[in-house]
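Appendix C reproduces, verbatim, an entry submitted by the partner laboratory led by Prof. M.T., so that reviewers can inspect both the input and the predicted structure.
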Amino acid sequence: MMLNQIVLIGKLNSLPVEESNNTLWKIRIENEDGVFPVYVWKGVADVLAEKEVGTLIAIKGKLTNTDDVLTVVAERVSLITEGEE
């Protein structure tokens, strides 16, 4: 059995953009290692659309490889409040 999980923590770099018949939406997460495309489901996209670019979030998801391009499909998204302990 292979485990395919990734955790990304970073700032929301773009608001959600529809990618797949109102099902999957694309966002970008930026951290010190770069900018990463992440696909989220519509309900999550609706919540993120109300947030500001720069909002700190955590993504738990899986890596997918389509045409030799790695992307992340989010399974869980958490908003992180800066200064939270």
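The two ends are 36 Å apart (CA to CA). Additional entries are available on request from the coordinating office.
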